[in-house]
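Q: Structure for this?
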Amino acid sequence: MRATRPGLPLVVVLAVAAALLAIATVARVISARAGFLVERESVLVVWLVGLFVAAVLVAWVSRAAFRRASSPLNLWLLALTAVALASPLLLIFAQHPSS
Amino acid sequence: MTRQLRRGRRAVAALLLTAGILSFGYVADASYVAEQLVYAAPTPIDKTPASLGLRFAYVSFPSRQDHLTLRGWFIPGVLPNGRLTADRAIVVVHGTRTNRESKGDHQLQLTGELAKHGLAVLAFDMRGAGESTPAPLSMGTLEQRDVLGAVDFLHNGPIPMPELGRPRVIGGLGISMGAATLLMAAAREPAIQAVVSDSAYAEVVPLLEREVPKRKVAVLGHVPGGFVPAALVMSRILYDVDYFAARPVDSIATIAPRPLFLIHGLADDYVPLSNFQRLNAAASAPSTAHVTTWLVPKARHAQAFKVTGAEYVTRVVSFFDASLGADRSLTGVAA
């Protein structure tokens, strides 16, 4: 169990991303019946709360894993977690100059 | 613990902290920008065709597929003898963040001119605009269902003015986002037999990437350009609005062999001329294509009618006369 713990944050990051997408979809479908003017704000609020909970969860799991990390392999796994965490930032480079 | 391992731990800690804070902050801000992007406050309608001395009927009909309620005016055409006709109907599609009156590009005056030249007009508010059902702004991806709903209404809906009967042929005229929306709808619906596209974009994403950073949103102020790609992705995740699908350039060739009239202002710096060139090239590709073009000197975005006035009306009416044929209602109905 101890050997797999440094990999846990990476698993949590991926699981949290999937959970957030699922929550957003469910919130959108449920609140769609209330009309768009209500929906757009409630979906955003649900999403932001979910994002905050996800951030706290990832931070907590990563901190625990970091404290136990005692080998280069453990640190590489945590570095990989940081790369996964940073992946949304890659969208910054997706901009196309307008023709 | 070795010195090297300690250094590694410090580096990984910094990496985790930085990646976490930047990523969650970036996604949260992009989500907020997406929420602002998909919402356009409806603008009020101040004037009706009656202000131009025209008869009209208020109409409402559902969009195709998702059945949102859309509201508009049906304005019968006026024949030279003063009688009314609904023989040839033109669906007029407004641009973004406006409505069927569309003061900025003088759409009410334009629809009035079409009616006075014998063309019946169905001018309606697209979803989220004017008096129609609130809905996200998708720059044509979802709004094309509204144009298709308008066609269904003219074909099968309650006849707005029963004494005039149902239209024999249907054409379409769109301006800016309305033009892009109409092009995508016409590609799917052969009942739209002639299309006038004024100031359409070839695809909307480059336009949004350039224009959104210029806009101010509450709390954030100006949106940094780097947030736009993520905001577009978040619009899809949170609101099911796929701006990446708003690409008339991909489907415009399907309009052939139906006649297409592309109009663009030479001074348009909002939807650059390259959009016109791409659309024209794509539309003209089929051997059966029938494309007419008009580049309007000194006209900025969606201002061709304002700049040229009577010439615009003459060209558009001539195009519809040639494409849809003359009015066949013979005498029409007394006004």
